[in-house]
User: What shape does this take?
Amino acid sequence: MTTDEYNICVDKYADNVFRFILKNIKDADKAKDIVQDSFEKMWMRVDEIAFEKSRSYLFTTAYHTMVDAIRKDKKKADFEESEPFLQGTNKEYFGLKEVIDDALARLPEIQKTVIMLRDYEGYAYDEIGDITGLNESQVKVYIYRARLTMKKYIGSLEKVL
Assistant: This one.
C-alpha cells in the first residue's frame, strides 16, 4: 500500500472504526486511542498490506486492540459497583435508539461485537469471522443469541413506542 492509499484509508474508514469502537466501550477518549493505535499498527505494516484488504485489516486490528483494552480495564474494575442484569425494561424511554443502545450494552462482549459488525457496519458472516477469529457458524450462533437476548429485553415494540 502506498502513502496515498493509506491516507485514503484514514479518510474513508476512521469514522466507521471510531463508531464501532465507541458503541462497544462507550468512552470517546479510549475509542480515539484505540483508533489511533490501529492506524499506527497499520502504518507499521503498510508495505505488507494490500489496499484492497485495508478495511478488513483495520477493523480486525481495532477489534483486537479493543479486546485488549477491555481485558486490561476489567482487571482494574470494581465489581461491587456492577449492577445485576435485569430482564425487561423498567425505565421510561423516549426513543427506540435509547432502548436498542441499552439492550446492546447488556450483551456479552462477543455478541455485541458480531451484532455491531453485522447490523451497523454491514459485514458478511465470513468477514466477521475473519475479524473476530470465529468460524462462520459461530458468528451466526452469536448473532442469533444476541438477537434473542435483545428481543427478550426490549419486549414488544408496541410497549416501547
Remarks:
- The chain is about 70% helix and 0% strand.
- The two ends are 48 Å apart (CA to CA).
- Helices lie at 3-25, 28-44, 54-76, 96-105, 109-120, 125-132, 136-154, 157-160.
- Confidence is low (pLDDT under 50) at residues 84-90.
